[in-house]
Q: What sequence folds into this?
């Protein structure tokens, strides 16, 4: 085993018993996430309690071994890839809902709880956790917190950080800490919750999360709007952000994405240059009718013909088609490299067209889809998996990031920095700020064992 002494292994066995994985064949499942980046772990452990994680951190400190937390392995930036060897901390057994407080709309969970499973539990009480990543049937709450995950409904509800009240975190500097509060408002200390959420496991390991939840709306209506001009679709989206009818999601798919979904799954989406997908929430049938009427009037004023608009009275039917975007592109083109840029929504049309211009410049297909109501796009570079990490593709990635930063945007809206984007951070973040981030890392993780080499 690379980098692990017999003494270290003995100490780990005293904590985890037979919940240590050292077999190289079994360890292969931990070598990559969905970013195509690969690395070999020294071993993996499967904790069942936060006390075991505390003991693990003490052993890792003693032997200076990296710890790499892992949930569903759905990261797109290499966040859970063991680039320096080390110990994978697999949270699949820490998957319990520990407390549920119906009166205060709060739930305390372990990091291995799968997002969809939590919402299945909450739905019995007509509640839900709003941020809805596309991989909700696989991704865990711990992974969502590490990346500050979002999804289509982030347009209305924001990212997962808006729904976190408190966290139990195991740090290498001071051990176990509880940060945050059970109250809705709280300013007694620094806001360490916001610091840890999105830190990709580089500052500490989350072992419990106290989350807010919300009442489910009675109705969710889906509306698709076809457009024969991609730039104009971006302009329509900017216009829709000014409409106050309780829109919870505004998504965009370009012609490449639409064609791939239709080809791979025979989804019968209208073949056009772009489709805008809206979700509208309503709390009564009258409310729903009024909102649809207001939307119809607004779209008419924008010059959109009725035949370009389709209403899904069950929004889930629409979302089932949208969720097929990534895997359809992968099937049709043999691979894809999803990026994750975000810009102020007013600059969305310009950004879309500048990214599209890279296709002809580099002679590579680039699909564009994403959570466009936030100015958040997933440009998808369509190349076979084996070509995805070549210098040519890195150059396209760099150009996409430069476009985002030039347009007052950021390198990542929800997929994180991980290892995939780390070298490009100076495009967005100045040297003094990067120095400050490094100082925070050094303070909370002086042993540099918490997912080293990621984020900063």
A:
């Amino acid at each position: 085993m690379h980098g692990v002494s017999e003494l270290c292994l003995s100490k780990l066995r005293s904590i985890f018993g037979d919940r240590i994985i050292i077999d190289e064949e079994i360890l292969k499942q931990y070598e990559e996430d969905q970013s195509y980046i690969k690395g070999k772990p020294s071993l993996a452990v499967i904790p069942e309690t936060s006390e075991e994680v505390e003991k693990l951190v003490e052993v890792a400190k003693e032997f200076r071994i990296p710890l790499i937390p892992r949930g569903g392995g759905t990261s797109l930036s290499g966040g859970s890839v063991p680039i320096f060897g080390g110990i994978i901390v697999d949270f699949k057994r820490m998957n319990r809902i520990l407390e549920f407080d119906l009166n205060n709309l709060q739930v305390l969970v372990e990091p291995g709880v799968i997002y969809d499973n939590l919402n299945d539990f909450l739905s019995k009480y007509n509640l839900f956790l709003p941020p809805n990543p596309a991989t909700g049937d696989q991704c865990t709450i711990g992974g969502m917190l590490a990346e500050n995950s979002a999804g289509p409904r982030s347009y209305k509800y924001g990212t997962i950080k808006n729904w976190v009240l408190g966290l139990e975190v195991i740090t290498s500097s001071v051990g176990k800490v509880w940060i945050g509060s059970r109250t809705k408002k709280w300013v007694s200390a620094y806001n360490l919750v916001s610091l840890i959420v999105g830190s990709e496991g580089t500052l500490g390991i989350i072992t419990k999360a106290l989350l807010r939840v919300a009442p489910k709306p009675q109705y969710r209506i889906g509306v698709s709007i076809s457009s024969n001009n991609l730039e104009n679709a971006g302009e329509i989206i900017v216009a829709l952000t000014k409409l106050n009818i309780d829109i919870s999601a505004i998504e965009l798919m370009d012609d490449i994405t639409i064609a791939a979904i239709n080809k791979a799954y025979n989804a019968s989406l209208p073949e056009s240059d772009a489709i805008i997908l809206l979700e509208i929430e309503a709390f009564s049938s009258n409310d729903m009718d009024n909102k649809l009427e207001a939307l119809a009037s607004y779209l008419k004023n924008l010059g959109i013909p009725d035949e370009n608009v389709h209403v899904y009275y069950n929004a889930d039917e629409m979302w089932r088609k949208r969720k097929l975007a990534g895997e359809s592109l992968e099937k049709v083109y043999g691979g894809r490299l999803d990026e994750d840029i975000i810009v102020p929504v007013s600059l969305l049309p310009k950004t879309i067209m500048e990214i599209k211009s890279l296709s002809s410049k580099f002679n590579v297909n680039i699909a564009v889809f994403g959570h466009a109501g936030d100015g958040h796009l997933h440009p998808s570079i369509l190349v076979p998996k084996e070509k995805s990490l070549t210098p040519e593709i890195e150059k396209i990635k760099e150009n996409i990031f430069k476009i985002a930063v030039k347009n007052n945007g950021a390198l990542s809206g929800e997929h994180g920095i991980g290892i995939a984007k780390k070298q490009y951070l100076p495009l967005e973040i100045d040297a003094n700020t990067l120095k400050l981030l490094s100082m925070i890392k050094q303070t909370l993780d002086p042993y540099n064992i918490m997912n080293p080499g990621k984020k900063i």
